[in-house]
Amino acid sequence: MKFSKLSYFFFFGLFVIIVGCISCQKQLSSHHELWDSLSPDEQRARIVSDSRTIRRKYAKDCSTFVANVYLKNGFQFFEGARQRNIRGNGVKLIFDFVKRDGMVFDNRLPKPGDLVFFSNTYDRNRDRKLNDDLTHIGIVVDIEPKGVVRFIHVIRDRPIESVLSLNTPNRPRNADQIINDYLRRKTFRDAPGTPYLSGQLFFAFGSLFQNPQDPVDLTDG
User: What DSSP character marks residue 176?
Assistant: First the structure.
């Protein structure tokens, strides 16, 4: 009788898992169908909207936030890495996904819905050197005048919007306009010359939409 009860609970649990997996796959398939029916501009607008409305429990850190916004639209940034047993921080995994299935660039402006990657936003390996690649990520939500890029990202478990300027990466302000936010916190361990501004810490943009030949330069807008 004891074996029978254990068997029942085992198979019931297995059934729940299988049904859950099937339901999840159907949901992702539905997201893909809806996504494919949208124009590129509509897809971008959807990413931006979702990034601004996603619940905080899905935004525990910068890479989880980005992954969940894109997962809502059918992109599984981390699934392939798990299947191939690839390890690494979340930002690096997303970067590799975009590099493989989309494009990364640093020589022109992005568009809303694209991704922005940063390096050296903290001393990850604690060696007091600027050798920490791909430590932060955000989603581009707007391009402001003079090429200032507005993006949303997570700081201390909370999504916030910040800006960066690649035209003027070493200044926080231009007259009354903030053009670069501080992304790295100053500590007594920082080496001389450590950068702190978003424009200084910029690594690359990434896109799953944009054609590599789109003629958009860094002074657009």
Answer: T
Question: What is the residue whose two structure tokens read 């909370």?
Answer: 158
Q: How far is CA 171 from CA 36, 38, 183, in A?
A: 41, 39, 13
Residue 76 lies in a domain: yes
On whether residue 86 sits in a domain, the answer given is: yes
- Give the pair of three-digit tokens for residue 100: 């493989």
Number of domains in the chain: 1
Dihedral angle over CA of 28, 34, 38, 40, nearest 10: 0
Q: In b/e form, how buried is each residue of 44-56, taking b as 16+ CB within 10 angstroms?
A: bebbbebbeebee
Phi and psi, residue 167, nearest 5°: -75, -35
Tracing tokens 């390890």 back to the chain, one arrives at 87
The boundaries of the domain holding residue 188 are 38-207
3-class secondary structure, 74: coil
Residue 5 lies in a domain: no
pLDDT digits (tens, 9 = 90+) for 71-121: 999 999 988 666 565 667 999 999 999 999 999 999 999 999 999 999 999
